[in-house]
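Handout, tutorial session.
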Amino acid sequence: MLSLQHPYISVALDGQRTYGGGQQFSDNHMVNLCGCGIIAAADTLLYLQRWHNHGRIPMLDVCLQTNPLPFSAYHELIHQLRREYFPLIPYLGINGLMLAAGMQRFFRHYSLPFSCRWCVSHRELWGRIETMLAADLPVIMSAGPNFPFLWQKEKVSFYEKTPSGDYHPSSGARAHYFTVTGMDDRWLRISSWGRCYYMYRSEFEHYARRHSTTIVSNILYIERKT
């Protein structure tokens, strides 16, 4: 499996270590309800700061003083990012263009050598994810809302991997951001809700084309400036 080159972000919670953050742990109702985009953005920025450091960023550095990250510092970061870079539309969250705009503002503010855009051609999707992982860049991905029938409840399945190597359906998502940390020719390894899951690539393709749209079921493509 092609993977990120360093350990992924982890938060200390009730004596356990999470695999990335999770909006369900927030004490803010709106973040708890629809803050998955901010969580994915925060984890990506923290990963870049920890492993691709380009100078001090106080709001990130305070989280990175210990490993795993302190729960209180992590969620103070979430609130700060929401106020300054990633405003939430009440009950709807943040769309891909807003997410990309917030990341671009952050990159420019701290003179980070990255640029990003929302949405790549679906023909290029897996190649773009592979390119980012090979460059040690987390991939923010979305399973968009059902479209055009917004009231439907179709989801893309998330799986858990057993010690024996089998995959079992665990949960599912729609209108949800998560972060890709690894991939092979069949599976994506992802971080969502503070846990490690796997998603079948062909099932994501089916979901995006049949139950959503490839414009919103897509990725935030980040690349290093040359």
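The second record follows below. Compare its token runs with those of the first.
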Amino acid sequence: MTEHPLSQFSYCPKCGSARFVERNAKAKQCLDCGFVYYFNPSSATVALIVNEQGELLVCRRAKEPQKGTLDLPGGFVDCNETGEEGVAREVMEETGLKVVKAAFLFSLPNLYPYSGFLVHTLDMFYRCSVVQTDHIAAHDDVAAAFFIPLKDINPQDFGLASIRRGLQKIIDERIIV
């Protein structure tokens, strides 16, 4: 039996009661005030940006998890933000590139380690068009950003499991050519 995803949360977020117990596989409930908290994944985005030479924009991670490995631009969606707005913001924050179009491709469930906690995410992959690709700069949690020919992409070179799975799906299904 696996541990409940909310096992690290001991107190009700509404009233502070310690009688915050597992209700079912997706929720905890406070036995004092009745509040029910459903555990749902956080939204995250992944940007697929291909230049005119048929190269994919990749990044090198500046921070843990998987510091120093290859990655794709993206990150968590903020509250009151669409997936498209989130991927555009993340691309701007990490590379300085302005996304002019973001087309949803597919999504994958993921577990992302953050601050000693496994965050359940739903990673949404977008094909992004940008204004120009010749002024890339690494910012935020990116150590470097550069293009690799699509034919040279090896999913095993990427540190995060969801990115590897997404890239393999793209290769197997010829989603971008």
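Points raised in discussion: The chain is about 15% helix and 40% strand.
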